[in-house]
Fold this sequence. Notes:
- It is built from 16 helices and 18 strands.
- The relative contact order is 0.14.
- It has helices at 6-20, 46-55, 69-83, 93-97, 114-123, 138-151, 165-175, 210-214, 248-259, 277-280, 322-328, 373-387, 397-416, 424-432, 440-453, 482-486, and strands at 35-40, 59-65, 88-90, 104-107, 127-130, 155-157, 182-190, 267-273, 295-301, 306-312, 335-342, 345-351, 354-359, 364-369, 421-422, 463-465, 469-472, 477-478.
- Helix 5 runs parallel beside helix 6, helix 7 packs parallel to helix 9 and helix 9 crosses helix 13.
- It folds into two domains: 6-161, Rossmann fold, CATH 3.40.50; 163-370 and 397-486, Dihydrodipicolinate Reductase, domain 2 (2-Layer Sandwich), CATH 3.30.360.
- It has 498 residues and is an alpha/beta fold.
- The longest helix has 20 residues, at 397-416.
Amino acid sequence: MSKLNRRQFSALAASAYMASATPRITQAQSPNEQLGVCIAGLNGRGGEHIRGFNADPRTVIRAIVDIDEEVAGKRAEQIAKLQNFKPEVFTDVRNALDTDGVDILTCATPNHWHALMGVWAMEAGKDVYIEKPVSHNIHEGRALVTAAERYGRMFQTGTQSRSSSACRDAVQFLADGGIGEVNFARGLCYKRRKSIGALGDYPIPANVNFDLWSGPASMTDPKLTRGRFHYDWHWQRHYGNGDLGNQGPHQTDIARWGLGLNRHPNAIISYGGRLGYDIERKDPNYVDAGDTANTEVSIYDYGDKSIVFETRGLDVSESMGKEVATFFGDGKGNKIGVIFYGENGYLAQTRYDYCRVFDKEMNLTKEFKAGNVGDAHFANFIDACVSRDYGSLNADAMTGHLSAGVSHLGNISYYLGEQNKASLEQVVDAVGKVKSLDDNAATLERTVEHLKANGVDLEKTPLALGPYLEFDNESEKFTNNDDANEMLTREYREGFEV
Ligand SMILES: NC(=O)c1ccc[n+]([C@@H]2O[C@H](COP(=O)([O-])OP(=O)(O)OC[C@H]3O[C@@H](n4cnc5c(N)ncnc54)[C@H](O)[C@@H]3O)[C@@H](O)[C@H]2O)c1
């Protein structure tokens, strides 16, 4: 165990008390003895960080950072009510990291900021909880792994399924041969995403610091090409990673975990498009402000195992297929999860706190359920901040890096193929050559049926077909495509280099 500072020691004593005492500790420790938390990025997910770290008596929220002064002001008021004193409010994370009493930085900013904040915080001696995806590209994920090792800091990735007893028991069930040999998993992000509005020239809200918001990404003039400032950056690749890199890292993580894959894939190919918004908006010339795929299939070859990830942003209610409806137990609404295909049956993760097992005849044979997964994940992180036992973390830096990496590698193939509008015959031909344990042609056929059900005419708006990319796990480089290697990192702004 590395040397504890005074607050870590005090929180350790509280942990021991919580473990032995019944009922659970009832009186909060004095704020000086608690681990000080700084939360960066407070608009959406940051609210859950506030709830989680406020609820644990071992932590106190001493500081918050947001480049939107309105968001920061509201959250400061909310926290003051919860813990009876106001946290210090910062616009620039670097100033918060210099503040006395901050032991932990949590980050729920847009994706392009995750790695830089993580590295800066660990350099400054803080433990970090970084939202998924932990990186915006492969280079950044590796930088986080290196920093956690170099500075000896605790690192939790915000993939809360790792602390779900349902997912843990299900993964153990797979490892114990519960459905026989399992070499293939299908991740599903069937999540309706409407158009984010027309590509345009929109004003930057007066209450935000756009220079700091842009951070490691280049500054766009400054101008905004989407209407809504917060959240919709997910669908602009300069900042976000599309749904493969948004919802995806939860499911790609579970797929890797269940298959026991602690490495990158050997090869990848993706196809898809940002399709159907002209139909949604009833305007054949409509151009949506997003530039990530809303329909994407990525095939990952891991040698003797494989993963397929399907992103569908259009309506799936008429086109999810009977098999998916059965795994999820109904035929309506979004379908987000992972299906493991075993020799003797199937295991379906359909919620963070719920997994179900089916036999080959699709009879439900077993269920795994969990309590509050989010709380368990924060608690696992705080336990490690106290014990200094890196090995006890459920989702460490490498876990976050590999699972975000699955998304980045899939997107690189898609982005490189964006201009390669392919006929269906060409896509059939290309995926037919890719080694996979899936029926690649059948998955393509289902995707095409889904697009047709949403009125997409693939003659007019064909699928983009990405190149088949080979990847070397050790060097973290592609071995057959120089353009793809360029996309493993980005050009960083001066002063914001990762
Ligand atoms: N684990 C989960 O289940 C889960 C759920 C939702 C979101 N997330 C992740 O949380 C992150 C945030 O998502 P969101 O939906 O809340 O986005 P959002 O756009 O609603 O909020 C992001 C906030 O970060 C602030 N911000 C931007 N740059 C900043 C900077 N340099 N310093 C401080 N604050 C900054 C913004 O002003 C905004 O308040 C994303 O990476 C997302 O993937 C995780």
